[in-house]
Amino acid sequence: MGFRKDFLWGGATAANQCEGGYQEGGRGLANVDLMPTGEDRWKIATGDMKHVKPDEKYFYPGHEAIDMYHHYKEDIALFAEMGFKCYRFSIAWSRVFPLGTEEKANEEGLKFYDGLIDECLKYNIKPLVTICHFDVPMGLVEAFGGWKSRKMIDAFVKFSKVLFERYKDKVEYWLTFNEINMILHAPFMGAGLVFNEEDNREEMKYQAAHYELVASARVTKLAKEINPNFKIGCMLAAGNTYANTSNPQDVFQSLEKDRENFFFIDVQSRGEYPAYALKFFEREKIHLDFLMEDKKVLRENTVDFISFSYYSSRLTSADPEVSKSTEGNVFATLRNPYLKASEWGWQIDPLGLRITMNTLYDRYQKPLFIVENGLGAVDIPDQNGEICDDYRIEYLKEHMKAMRDAVDIDGVELWGYTSWGCIDLVSASTGEMKKRYGFIYVDRDNEGNGTLKRQKKKSFHWYKEVIHSNGENL
């Protein structure tokens, strides 16, 4: 049986990690432009350190990134050579509305995306567009405080309307927000939130999340009005949390950790706040600005499919004495003794992908789309200048086997798979270039040096065969 005949194989990137050209084409400053390399990066991402304009003491890797702004034709030609059926990318909000508060969109910014989308269509590559991938114009952060304000909803709807009307005959698949649950872990990066000492942080994060959820529902409604054939998805940073032991305390804590992430998708997929979330707000004295009209729009405008990123599973314990932790992609997690880990401490768990797929499909009964999965590693050219990334091939192969089992054996409905960072790009978590995910090597280092020359890795040829065989030859 295997994958469906129209399975959407491809790759994924984000504007702020690959485009560069951060001041070109009339583009305005965004929160993601203020993420430097070094130890302050995470303090800024979490909103603990206020940083609202570039400072020359820092290096901001996203300002140039891999300069896809000027290389996109070359890059998409390489994607086409691999046989991509789908390319997931995001649209930089501040390229379309430089401040976010303008009435009229920036035509020069839109023309860039006209070219990018037309280049995809030239090769029969379907665009999968993320409307907001950790991207808030700083004009909106200054005017409203980012997503802490209800005014952000109208700004986001205005932005989305421009995109839907312009690309109504060219783009079928859309995601409203990337990894919407990341607002709890990196609130400045995820929603442009900066905290003051007196702020109730939990309340502010969940309030911002509520406004994003309402915005997502309003945009889903708008999308269907503009083109009923649009397919609108939500996007979750996924990965089940395992209990450290069979102690019921551990098991219950793992349930609670999973619910913390499912909460967002429960709302986007089912159309209402789950009882456990309402009880959590009551217990924590979190009071939300929640209008009756919000309830209606959430209920009537659920998503068509569930998309998610998967890099690893997580592990938790209710025992305060248990403390062997690992990095685990922003999410704090215990080290699982049954799993190997990447160079950055991310635990490698292919079966965890199958478990996650089954959990999501059982929970929502909606088609799934894996829009991020991959291995960040240091790639060093050999004596012939070639990059033999067998470790990446092995990682992807094992995850694809698990994905195939979820479809073939478990009956999960899966629309597609876009591996993360199909071309090397700036790491969101660390700002590094040496943490590479791509099938295509880009000559650029952590300090911004390099020719930006593109080069195929061994995995490029392997993935080409995977796509050609529709996942039969792994």
UniProtKB/TrEMBL annotation:
<keyword id="KW-0326">Glycosidase</keyword>
<protein>
    <submittedName>
        <fullName>6-phospho-beta-glucosidase</fullName>
    </submittedName>
</protein>
<dbReference type="InterPro" id="IPR001360">
    <property type="entry name" value="Glyco_hydro_1"/>
</dbReference>
<keyword id="KW-0378">Hydrolase</keyword>
<dbReference type="InterPro" id="IPR017853">
    <property type="entry name" value="GH"/>
</dbReference>
<comment type="similarity">
    <text>Belongs to the glycosyl hydrolase 1 family.</text>
</comment>
<dbReference type="InterPro" id="IPR033132">
    <property type="entry name" value="GH_1_N_CS"/>
</dbReference>
<dbReference type="InterPro" id="IPR018120">
    <property type="entry name" value="Glyco_hydro_1_AS"/>
</dbReference>
<feature type="active site" description="Nucleophile">
    <location>
        <position position="372"/>
    </location>
</feature>
<dbReference type="Pfam" id="PF00232">
    <property type="entry name" value="Glyco_hydro_1"/>
</dbReference>
